[in-house]
């Protein structure tokens, strides 16, 4: 399966890609439609004459946020194993009784519990209404020195969204993350500023996103991501080219020199070219830098990354054209009030710094570790009786992916696609650890007694959304399901793997039983994962605590355990 991915990727039918192309066209048309509703701006088909109006950028940002929070953006469709229906999100979040995930249930008043109430549903509906209220707004505010024909939206229109979405996020972090708040809500904040300050601040937000993403790629995992993504691109049909992405196809499928070069080159581009875009004030230099960044996002877009964050890349390309090319003349020297601009950028930078230092505490979205290959992940092992309990006792909008696949394609194809999902994990470094820890989690029965499901595909149907964030399917979700399903000991075992902190070359893991809780913790070394082929999951586990050893009184101190031979431990 790994060898097949190496030259064919996921191998989805061309019709699936056509679905995503149609969705991108619909996203672009929707943005232009709402912009054209602005009084005085002109007809829909005259968009070449008004695309560069500041109000258009404002409405594109809010439209994209709405598109995402409804579930039509990231995590949509067959490439995320969503078939019947192809999305969750609003189908789930408008349904009382489903599971919600508060970020700090024991610390923030009125947020405890995991059951979605009528209040949560209404709050989500009001957030949707707040975005529509902005999208239907006139542009009757002065453009503040910008060259504009129709002005901008009044700041008061943005206040309900800026208040309600974070408030909803305290009740349910999924919705806050699904709105891609680190990108779009940050942009909405700068819409409170006067015209030129707004443009410069919006430029800085995009630069912060590029630099944040580049910083997260300063690791040893990222070349694996490049090899996996470019193997998956439907635009390159040549198997000979795809073989070059690997060190020695078909025996050695670690990333080869081409993938390593592209990884390092892409990181340098993401640091340097946005800086050139920001400091240049138009002309040839700006156009060349803009063309490079558009090509950068087109490469990601056409590689169809798993999770399919396609509209985000389209939005970034529009931002390049609008902010850095059309408004190239505005820079730091033109800001009238630097304090609010600095506060927004410092908040984004803090998310990046903390997200890289403490990835077990900060979502990879807030930390902007989008394509880093260094993510919090989990692998769930369920006995057939546990699968039946999930179907019976958990309110949700869709069944587990395999059941959807069986209805469409039958048992054999469902197994095939499930294993392609395993292959995707195995080709990333963390996959070696996840599969290597499964025998420790489930014991001798791991081959025959359990159904193995990636945590992403547990979170998708049960929570309504998933996009690579392991914080959505860790112990918090285990506890919520245990509350509803009352699993017996051994019915559900979960391997939870934290991302690698930037300052350490190891990843911590925990083995969890739904009934009795955590029963082992330790770490795996990044070097051990890098040294192995995707199918070689014999990873040394450095155990720092186990329930069995604790009961026997033989747990060594963490520093001592780290020095012991992990196999002996």
Describe the protein's topology.
Blueprint: H1 2-8, H2 14-36, H3 47-50, H4 54-69, H5 90-93, H6 118-135, H7 159-171, H8 173-178, H9 184-190, H10 195-216, H11 222-232, H12 239-243, E1 246-248, E2 252-255, H13 257-279, H14 283-302, H15 310-326, H16 338-357, E3 377-382, H17 384-393, H18 401-409, H19 411-426, H20 429-442, E4 451-454, H21 455-463, H22 475-485, E5 492-497, E6 506-513, E7 517-525, H23 526-530, E8 542-546, H24 547-552, H25 558-563
Antiparallel strand pairs: 1-2, 3-4, 3-5, 5-6, 6-7, 7-8
Helix pairs in contact: 1-11, 2-4, 4-6, 4-9, 4-15, 6-7, 10-13, 10-15, 10-16, 11-13, 13-14, 14-15, 18-19, 19-20
